[in-house]
């Protein structure tokens, strides 16, 4: 892949749209939360922590609109709804796991640099 101007990530480039969809801070966390299997809205909100139900709903809808998340409604009383990764969404599992591992390894250093404090790793 070339990084020459005009070769990738132009305004109308599909690759740019794909990056914009998953670049949202809650999108990657939501996708990672669904990587172990289907969850209900409340279960996912509890698992993620720090996300409002409204923002989770918006995130799930956006991921669903772009084919990364499936919404399954069960005909029960009361109705049960579960969210899961689609086949396309599953293709993000490995990159998200790698990004998560990187974040775990480097999170303290990033936070220290952001706060202006030093760590032994810097």
Automatic annotation (TrEMBL):
Keywords: DNA-binding, Transcription, Transcription regulation. SUPFAM superfamilies: Winged helix' DNA-binding domain. It comes from the Bacteria. Gene3D superfamilies: Winged helix-like DNA-binding domain superfamily/Winged helix DNA-binding domain (1.10.10.10). Residues 13-111 form the HTH hxlR-type domain. InterPro entries: HTH_HxlR, WH-like_DNA-bd_sf, WH_DNA-bd_sf. Pfam families: HxlR. This is Helix-turn-helix domain-containing protein. It comes from Rhodococcus globerulus.
């Amino acid at each position: 892949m070339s990084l020459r101007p005009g070769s990738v990530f132009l305004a109308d480039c599909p690759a740019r749209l794909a990056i914009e969809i998953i670049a949202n801070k809650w999108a990657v966390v939501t996708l990672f939360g669904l990587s172990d299997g289907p969850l209900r809205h409340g279960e996912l909100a509890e698992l993620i922590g720090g996300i409002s139900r409204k923002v989770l709903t918006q995130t799930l809808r956006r991921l669903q609109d772009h084919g990364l998340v499936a919404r399954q409604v069960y005909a029960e009383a009361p109705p049960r709804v579960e969210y899961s990764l689609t086949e396309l969404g599953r293709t993000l599992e490995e990159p998200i796991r790698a990004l998560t591992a990187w974040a775990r390894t480097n999170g303290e250093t990033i936070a220290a640099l952001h706060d202006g404090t030093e760590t032994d790793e810097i």
